[in-house]
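#data-curation
PF: Archiving a pair of folding outputs for the training set. Convention for this channel: one message per protein, sequence first, structure tokens after, nothing in between. First:
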Amino acid sequence: MRLIQTSGVSGSVAASRSAILKTIYYRGPIKRSDIAKQLALTMPTITTNINHMIASGLVKEENKLDSSANSLGRKARPVSIIAEARHFVGIEMRGFQRIISVQDFLGRTLYCKKDGTPHPSYEENLKLSCDLLYEALDACGFTLNDITGIGFCVPGVVNSAEGRLDTLPSYGWRDKAVRADVASMTGYSGPISVENNACARAYGLRLLQKDLLMDVHNFTYFFISRGIACPLFLDTGNVVGSVVGAGEVGHMIMQPDGLLCSCGNRGCLEAYSSDVAVITRCKEALQQGKAPLLQQFCPDGEPSMHDIIAAQSAGDEDVRKIAQEAVYRIGIAVANVVNFASSRIMFIDGVLFGVPENRELLLNVIHTNLCNALHSDTEFRFVEPNDYSGANGAAALAIHDSLAYGDF
């Protein structure tokens, strides 16, 4: 559960203000009367709070009058968010790269940069991440005081309420006080939201796809990278909700007593279908003199996922077999998740699915194993992998949390 911080206003006022701002944010431009109907609040409450937000520079009245208004008095003007009113930073920190994004209040990217130098040390990764923050501020002409919130995401098991990374087995990172460490290293005194990187991507998608998801009350985000996760995003009532759990489906047991996973258990999905697992099997094929087309893409014997899907697309049968075995297990896992969570839409994000035949196989496996009597209307959408989606999602997380504070 995410923390909602307020100061200077009562809980009820903060809750009303937050709900009103969220409604404007996700449904604006919108009339005051429509906000009142949606939230079941009185017009005086709506007017008082919106006037406060206008005075604070958060929202504005649109110049265009509402043509549907029948009143003989003052015509209604819809209200909307001012994009330049607030600025947010998102950072994704992973052992092999660090990425930063600076966004305005509407989630539009003002600056982004990545550092792809691998470092196994948590402390070194944190230092380099904070260096990226200083560079971004300089590039944008901002100071720390110009930033309303920072979102920081990492893979692994994250305690978002406490801002801690509990464990990231693949790098041996355990019990890291991420929020406190970022605040200490940067001197930033504003809110710092910390989350799992798959969860952050779900927040980013909820923000950027708000028109698509306007009336969808739950969706899942199946993310395949070096690990595998599937958080559930749940909306509640008339307001945009939040991620429920990190969805560490990578540690779903697919084969009892199977391959050893980085978590120490055997038979986890991650051991068979993560990017690391696919790369490992392809390297083994290269060492055995197999996968001739992949050899052309990576003569050094160190394939990337992009090399692998390029070789599969070019017709390398050895690579195809490895990739599709991984996809088959992912399909079983996806069907299990949908059978359990009943999500209205599942978004699927993974480099493997840049190959059309992998998408086709996945959907076939899902529908073969899905309980269609219960979930026949679940929609599956593939997300184009993007190096910046984690950092953008972290910034969206910071925006999401700022909307919940209620004290503007």
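PF: Second:
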Amino acid sequence: MRERMSSAVRSGIPDTTDDFGNGMPYRTLSSWCLANYGEKLYKISLDAGFSCPNRDGTLGSRGCIFCSAGGSGDFAAGRDGTGSLRAQLDTGKALLSRKKTGSRFIAYFQAYTNTYGPLPRLERLFSEALSEPDIAGISIATRPDCLPEEVIGLLLCLKKSFPGKFIWVELGLQTIHEKTAAYIRRGYPLSRFDEAVRALRAADIPVVVHVILGLPGETREMMLQTVRYLNGSGIWGVKLQLLHVLEGTDLAADYRAGLFQTLSLEEYLSILCDCIAALSPGIVIHRVTGDGPKRLLIAPLWSADKRNVLNLLHRRLKQNAIRQGQTAGMETP
């Protein structure tokens, strides 16, 4: 019998009062799912056919400098030509069923900007996913400048229509530093991110923030400044993502021109440990490395062995007694 959902899950507000769980020195998404649902929830990545203001000419036509033609949705189930949302969900469930560790899933609207479209279309797509009995909730990847009041109002209505199911919003901040943001062509100022987080928090919609470690020109201290900034923003979750250089991106051209170098495995592990220690213990860490499609990955090639990266990270955290929140609120020397 499944465990009864906590009051936090029923209300849609994640519970972060439990211990880290899973024997890990940081708060993982898996441990949160186990604590609140009694099982691991696997994400099904979806391509719902959206575009992006950074691609359709509104802000630009080439996207962010690191973004592949797939709009960060290279692992979406729709990449195999299945088309409809229902078909993508069925494909994803079939693939994940082989793991045999959970019976419910998260519908992850991943590719491009998933609130960048007509309101009726957003309502239809999100409702379709939430209506699936074995979908525990949805995670919506979008931009802070694509969250007008009417979209947040729609998300509020969906929360009421689907009690017991969660709705998260994922925002691609990457960095708090405006010079870096201009280089990567993010297309919005930090103030817009702050406004979006405040609006989502007012609606009790949990926010997950994407941060890229190793962006060209950024020092260790700059990356830690981004993490510390998030500690005071009221976000629920974070994805710490290694910078990948992918084929077909403008970042790849700069890399081949020798304008920057990617982090070594040793450098990344060291920075990542510092970031975990600096991150508030109440924030759920959804990711600590990320995946670059092997067919597109140019650098760093060591990142293709994700299991090795995770094993080395966990060993280093244990050996050095590093724990999430250990240095939160402290300045580095």
